[in-house]
Write a structure and sequence with these properties.
The protein is α+β, with helices and mostly antiparallel strands. Helix content is 15%, strand content 37%. The strands form two sheets. Strands 2, 3, 4, 5, 6 and 7 form a six-stranded mixed beta sheet that branches. The chain has a two-stranded antiparallel sheet with strand order 1-8. The termini are far apart.
C-alpha cells in the first residue's frame, strides 16, 4: 500500500495513522508453511523534527512445521515495525532508510521485509519437543520407541564379550 506523505513531510509534529490488510503469501520459508490471509498492518508515520519515522505492528496467523517432530502447529505472529523514511539517500550502502518516491511510501515493502527478516527458520511446536527416533521414526513425544540404543562401533568387541 502506498501512503501519500505530502501533507506531513514539511510539517514537523504531524502524524498519519494507517491500517490495512496485506497478503504475505509467497513469503513462506523454513518452518513456516502457510501464512493466513489476510495479515494486518497498523501503525503511524510521524514527522519528528524533519525525520520521517514509521512505527507499527504486523500481525499474522501462520501454520508451521516443527523442526524436530515434523508436526504442523499454528503460531500467531506480532512483529513490531520501525523504519526511517527519506526523500533522498546520499549513501545507499550505509543507510537503512526506505525511500519516499513521489511523496509516497511503500508500506507493503516495509512490512514484507520485516516479516522475512524477523521470522525464525527453525521453529518448535513446544520447547521440550523430543523429536523423532533417528532409527525407526517414532514420535518420541508419544513415548519411547522399542529400538535398542545405537552401539558405538569401537566398542562392538566388548559388546560381544558381554553377550557370552
Amino acid at each position: 500500500m502506498l501512503l501519500d506523505l505530502r501533507e506531513i513531510i514539511d510539517v514537523p509534529g504531524a502524524s498519519l495513522p494507517f491500517a490495512f490488510d496485506i497478503d504475505l503469501s509467497g513469503l513462506e520459508s523454513g518452518s513456516v508453511v502457510k501464512i493466513g490471509v489476510p495479515a494486518r498492518v497498523e501503525g503511524k508515520i510521524d514527522n519528528e523534527a524533519g525525520m520521517i519515522l514509521l512505527t507499527g505492528v504486523l500481525t499474522a496467523d501462520t501454520t508451521c512445521v516443527c523442526a524436530r517432530c515434523l508436526k504442523e502447529f499454528g503460531r500467531h505472529v506480532e512483529l513490531p515495525l520501525r523504519a526511517s523514511l527519506a526523500e533522498e539517500i546520499q549513501d545507499e550502502t550505509e543507510c537503512d532508510a526506505y525511500l519516499i518516491v513521489g511523496g509516497s511510501a511503500d508500506v507493503d515493502e516495509i512490512a514484507r521485509t520485516a516479516f522475512v527478516l524477523n521470522t525464525e527458520q527453525r521453529l518448535l511446536c513446544r520447547e521440550d519437543c523430543r523429536g523423532l527416533c533417528p532409527t525407526c521414526g517414532k514420535d518420541l513425544n508419544e513415548g519411547p520407541c522399542s529400538c535398542r540404543e545405537a552401539q558405538d562401533p569401537r566398542l562392538a568387541v566388548l559388546g560381544q564379550l558381554l553377550e557370552k
